[in-house]
């Protein structure tokens, strides 16, 4: 802090204000531009984002609140089931913080795959889940 004060001391009051505002703008731009990637508002938005897969017979997912998600939907795609959940932040990290989500359906043959704030629970192997993620990234 002393170093910063010594740099700003020779500047006039208006010049200090301009410099502080410039730094604030640069920091704000850096924060706004970081993150990037796909951030989905809700599970229905994710369903609408698929290009190659046609998700049908979608209904509200039963465990949305228990996994810590803000929205969830369960759909059929190519005679397979997928559950889509969106979170307020990094889906994998938030899911791993809750015991129910971390262990969700571990007794059945399911896999969880993640993309930004989206978690997909697939019932037909991780390869199918990765194909769904790849479709969302297009």
Structure in words:
This protein is an alpha+beta fold and about 140 residues long. Helices cover about 40% and strands about 20% of the residues. It is built from 6 helices and 5 strands. The chain has a 5-stranded antiparallel beta sheet, covered by helices on one side. The termini are far apart.
Strand order of the largest sheet: 1-2-3-5-4
Q: Name the shape in a single word.
A: globular
Order of helices and strands: HHHEEEHHEEH
Distance between the termini: 46 Å
The count of β-strands is: 5
Helicity, as a percent range: 40-55%
- Please outline the major beta sheet: 5 strands, antiparallel
Strand portion, in percent? 15-25%
Helix-and-strand structural type: alpha+beta
Q: Rounded to an integer, what's the Rg over CA atoms? A: 22 Å
Helical stretch count?
A: 6
Average pLDDT across residues? 78
């Amino acid at each position: 802090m002393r170093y910063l004060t010594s740099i700003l001391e020779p500047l006039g009051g208006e010049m200090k204000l301009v410099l502080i505002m410039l730094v604030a703008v640069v920091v704000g731009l850096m924060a706004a531009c970081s993150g990037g990637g796909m951030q989905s508002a809700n599970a229905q938005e994710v369903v609408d984002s698929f290009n190659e897969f046609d998700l049908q017979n979608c209904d509200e997912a039963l465990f949305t609140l228990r996994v810590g998600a803000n929205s969830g939907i369960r759909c059929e795609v190519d005679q397979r089931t997928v559950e889509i959940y969106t979170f307020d932040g990094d889906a994998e990290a938030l899911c791993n913080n809750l015991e129910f989500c971390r262990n969700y359906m571990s007794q059945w043959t399911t896999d969880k795959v993640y993309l930004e704030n989206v978690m997909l629970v697939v019932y037909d192997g991780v390869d199918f889940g990765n194909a769904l993620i790849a479709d969302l990234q297009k």
